[in-house]
Design brief:
The protein has one domain. Strands 1-2 form a two-stranded antiparallel sheet. By secondary structure, it is mainly α. The protein contains seven helices and two strands.
Amino acid sequence: MYGEDGIAGESIEDVSIDLLKAGDKDLENECLFPHKGASEAQDRKLSEAVDDEVFQSLDLDTVQLRAIQAEFRGIQSDRESLRNDIMRTTCDDQIHLPINASRLITNAKSQFKIKPNSKSNLKPEYVTSALSQLLNSLNVIPGAKSKNN
């Protein structure tokens, strides 16, 4: 172990952060959850991504729509923080991390047998709620208590 940060130097990887260089349109296309009824094209895209039960339940009420929009604004804010604060001194989109998030996602998809282009049975309100709970439980600084402790 090097220093007191708990990170082993021999396990550090260069990881590309796609969010850093994403333009506004790219970000919308990748991260903004389309709401049902906005257009025929969006409804078709949604019906291809979620199962019928979820699609039928997507008549988003105001609370659900606000939660989805807040999540997207959070992603936009994270991108701006990356650009203006965290990575402002470099033109590179690479960062040295002890984990490779893309590999974690790929391995989870494999472990849970999630096929490409398969329909999801997850409702947006469940995803935003579970993500919020996960982020609140993360312990970034060793020895510090999470928000839930």
